[in-house]
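Q: What would this chain look like folded?
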Amino acid sequence: MAPQRSSPADQRDRERNRDPESDPLVRLVRSDALRPDEVVALRELFDEAWSDDVEGFTDEDWGHAVGGVHVIAEADGRVVAHASVVRRELHTAGNRLRTGYVEAVATRPSHQRRGLGSLVIGEVGELIDRNYRLGALATGVVGFYERLGWVAWKGPTFVRTAGGLVRTAEEDGNVFVRLTPTSPELDVSAPISCESRPGDAW
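A: My prediction, written as structure tokens:
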């Protein structure tokens, strides 16, 4: 079953059992259920998290992050961490894998080093395990995901286009996967491809 916004009763029970000063509240919300004020809060989080990036967090990045489920952590009365999972299809060694692809992983700078990123990615992993044959993401923060059980894809990466496979050598070593209970046996040194999309392929 697709994750839905928590019921009021569930939220009350969760609120009673947590310390609002120290325990973040984690919610799973589908993109089509996000309220306008939640979208504004998320975009503000991304602007802060990407403030040192020359391009920042673009509308194209936001487009990649929607269409699936958002894992949102809230503390101190505001959104402090986020990651989203969208459906993609990765191909490798004859396997066409329904994949939970992770986008827009961010923690508010003022709340970093509190375990919020690990908390959100832990929830993301459980979501992927329940709904997909594989999890995947592209990152330059290698050690963080390795510690959380993600595996570096060692084979060459490609994007599938109307004209055929196009090499994405710049992404080699940056693609990580999460094996789920329904994953087939995979050779992580084999070629792997994703479908084409506007902006960054991976």
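Residues 29 and 81 are 13 Å apart (CA to CA).
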